[in-house]
Amino acid sequence: MGYAIRAPRSNEPYDNTPIFERIAEDLYARGYSLIDEAIPEQLAEALFTRVLTLNDTDFSPAGIGRADALMQNDFVRRDEIRWMSTEHEAEHGWLDWVEQLRIYLNRRLFMGLFSYEAHFAHYAPGAFYKRHVDAFRGGENRILTTVLYLNSDWVADDGGEMLLYLEDNGMNVAAPPIARVMPTLGRLAVFLSEEFPHEVLPAKRDRYSIAGWYRINTSTAEKVDPPD
């Protein structure tokens, strides 16, 4: 699964380069990367604390689609989300980290990543997100997906795994996943948004994560990207 590499502990000198290089190598070789303790321990703990301070009114039911096409569908997904901003220190720390990753990947892989958006995701016990892709081929919207998990002391019996599938398998429910990702604190998944269908299985306890997407710039004379 590729979970061996980790970021230094909080009392160790921190250098993003080994983590960023591992992500770049994985993306080049297979299109996805799975890394344990990918971000500094202090930042992971701060984000974990932050999401636990949010209350029910801070979250909104997640939808499917974007802008005017946004709709809710409890048959497909039952998570709640809260969009991130730079106003809180921990959120600012995460957005700064992914900005550094964006710059590195553009230099290393020439991906043309332009903007990034992210939200906290809360899955109450029993909530799920059925198999889907984060972008449609040729849509020039979301290019690269990131998922950072924020769950302390998570064990296999808690459920809530993300299952990652090969695109060639499409929506063939008989095809086994290529990865089963348990949502433990500090674990990071990065994958090409168009290439990998994935789903979130129901969990037995509250499950938190940060889902984010890098996009390319599709601005034209008629529209400005990214849209509001």
Could you explain the architecture of this structure?
Helices cover 21% and strands 24% of the residues. It is built from three helices and eleven strands, in the order H-E-H-E-E-H-E-E-E-E-E-E-E-E. Strands 1-9-6-11-4-3-2 form a seven-stranded antiparallel β-sheet, covered by helices on one side. A four-stranded antiparallel β-sheet has the order 5-10-7-8, with no helix packed on it. Mean pLDDT is 86; it is low at 3-11, 66-71 and 219-225.
Tell me, rounded to a whole number, the average pLDDT. 86
- Can you tell me the overall shape? globular
Question: Which strand order do you get reading across the main beta sheet?
Answer: 1-9-6-11-4-3-2
How large is the radius of gyration?
Answer: 17 Å
Unreliable sequence segments = 3-11, 66-71, 219-225
Query: How much helix is in the residues?
Result: 10-25%
**Distance between termini?**
36 Å
- The count of helical stretches stands at 3
Let me know the number of strands: 11
% residues in beta strands: 15-25%
The H-and-E topology, N to C, reads as HEHEEHEEEEEEEE
**In this structure, how is the largest beta sheet organized?**
7 strands, antiparallel
Structural class determined from secondary elements: alpha+beta
